[in-house]
Amino acid sequence: MLLTFAVATAFAAILVAVFLPQLLSPRRRLSSLADQVAVVSGGAQGLGREIVLRLAAAGCSVVVWDVDRAGLESLRTQVEASGGRIATDVVDVSQSADTKLAAERALQTWKKVTILINNAGVVSAKPLLELTDAQIQRTMGVNLLACFWTTRALLPTMKEQPHAQIVNIASVLGHIGVARLSDYCASKHGVVGFHESLCMELADQPNVVPTVVCPGTISTRMFDGIKHPFFMPPLTPEYVADCVVDRIHQGGGGMLVLPRLFHLMPFYRLLPMSLKVLAARLTGVLHSVDNVKGSS
């Protein structure tokens, strides 16, 4: 009897975790993105690039910030060849002053910003004792602090729009910890906390809708060499980008978790640490990052 009740309760909790945020999130479906202007950080490669391509194909004007000059040039050529509207800017979003100036340039050109996608990210993939101060600061700067700098620079103008969206790309590692990723996991936990606090601050500003995206491992260069457990195949950047842009079309809001299996994370967090370590050993997760070289 107790076991049946526990299983039923867990199943009900999963349904609530999956569907209730979508029902309660303020949504105003966008029939078209043609009148939208999006800023995408870290958009020259990987997931960011795929998001930019989809936004541009949908008619959205896109401003792309990245430190990869060559990647920005090739992206601009690709978008313009398809008739899209794009501007690129070499920006280190970990630097507050640089980000503020880039925001001013974007507003001078486009007059408004209606969508902000905080996507920039780096990973060091080293044990804590092998991380340098510079690597830790870089990870925190790009993955977490950049969300503060970009949002603070653009939120005032976004509040003036009839509808605006802030999309923060976090990770399932914003809810759990993994060996050799202490700085990365901490930064993504911070992004989730930033998103939730931002939602609270904007509770009386329903025209600005924050969304946080928590995907599993994506098959991009950042995590080259990772060993995937059999039950957690990597996501493709194309698939995740499709889901992100679809959520934008829906009006945004809530937490987008990919794949849905990870809606079980709240139950995982209730386990004692000894069981989490045992599960990581048995599934191979404990050493899954050993061969990852990192990107920072």
TrEMBL record:
Main localisation: membrane
Membrane-protein topology: Multi-pass membrane protein
Keyword NADP (UniProt): yes
GO cellular component: membrane
Keyword Oxidoreductase belongs to the record: yes
Domain Ketoreductase: 36-221
InterPro entries given in the database record: KR_dom, NAD(P)-bd_dom_sf, Sc_DH/Rdtase_CS, SDR_fam
Similarity comment: family membership: Belongs to the short-chain dehydrogenases/reductases (SDR) family.
Protein name (record): Short-chain dehydrogenase/reductase 3
Lineage: Eukaryota, Filasterea, Capsaspora
